[in-house]
Amino acid sequence: MNDINGNVFNIQRYTVHDGPGIRTEIFLKGCSLKCLWCCNPESFNKNLEIGVYPDKCIGIDKCGYCLEACSFPKEKIFEINENNAVESINRELCTNCLRCAEVCPGDVIITWGEIKKVSEVIEEVSKDKIYYDESGGGITISGGELLVQWEFALELLKESKRLGINTCIETTLYAKWNIIEQLLDYSDLLITDIKHMNAKKHKEFTGVSNKLILENIIKVSKEDIPYLIRIPMVPDHVATEENMRETAKFIKEELKNMPLQIQLLPFHEYGQSKYNTLGMSYLLKNYNFPERKTQNYLIESLHTIMLDYQIPVVIGSTNKLPLSKK
Length: 326
Hints:
Elements: E1 5-15, E2 23-28, E3 49-52, H1 65-69, E4 78-80, E5 86-89, H2 99-103, E6 109-112, E7 114-117, H3 118-126, H4 129-135, E8 138-142, H5 150-162, E9 166-170, H6 177-184, E10 189-193, H7 199-206, H8 211-220, E11 227-233, H9 241-254, E12 261-266, H10 272-277, H11 292-307, E13 313-315
Parallel strand pairs: 2-8, 8-9, 9-10, 10-11, 11-12, 12-13
Antiparallel strand pairs: 1-2, 1-7, 3-6, 4-5
Helix pairs in contact: 3-5, 5-6
């Protein structure tokens, strides 16, 4: 085993949404895209970083460990509110030494991310092997974007396969093909997204062009690996009739082997609070999205449109996968 380090921001056990059976999902830090609707902003930066939850702070007059631990106490890195509590940090002045997070007793100041060795992650994953074997589950590596830390992801996949654990990668495919190819050799399933077919809108919504992503999806469709395509149903952005028709046409005409499923994922805004902890703005915060009932009706209508193209489209991510196709 090449026991290298990686930056992991979450290990979620007993997940059933990202691949078959009961799985352990490893979320790696770092992403090449910056989707406007992303619910995991802590995944953008590949480095460790500070998060602040001001509502948990009892006040620096009652605690103050963070100020004492700071390497530069005179620089006024901590921004204190009217309740004498830590509100945020000045990220331009902060050196990211992380000492404040280490001493904070109330998880007011936390570290997003944790440096782990391959062996440490595999030890955690192996705890549930009996459940994987019984349910057809395994390990899913996600992010962020796992290709930002592809060497670490590759070692996790290799070691998982050595232990007889089913493997799945969830990726945007925004990377050179020679990198992706190496991971496919040790993956039993691939999950990817099509965010938008219009190149200009894709860059506006995600920060990057869709050209490389679509090229790589076509290449994946020629490989001997089962794969899923997911489409986030963001109203007025992704979830439009024009985009769904273009997406269905691309899948039908350009992909050699059809994906196991095309999953339409209902939109949510669960990650908004995490933007605040990072001193970031959620750019869709003031967008007037339709009510949930209206969104559900929209998804149903777009689902019907895509079915007309005779492709295996479903709503949600918990539908049973026809893995016998492999």
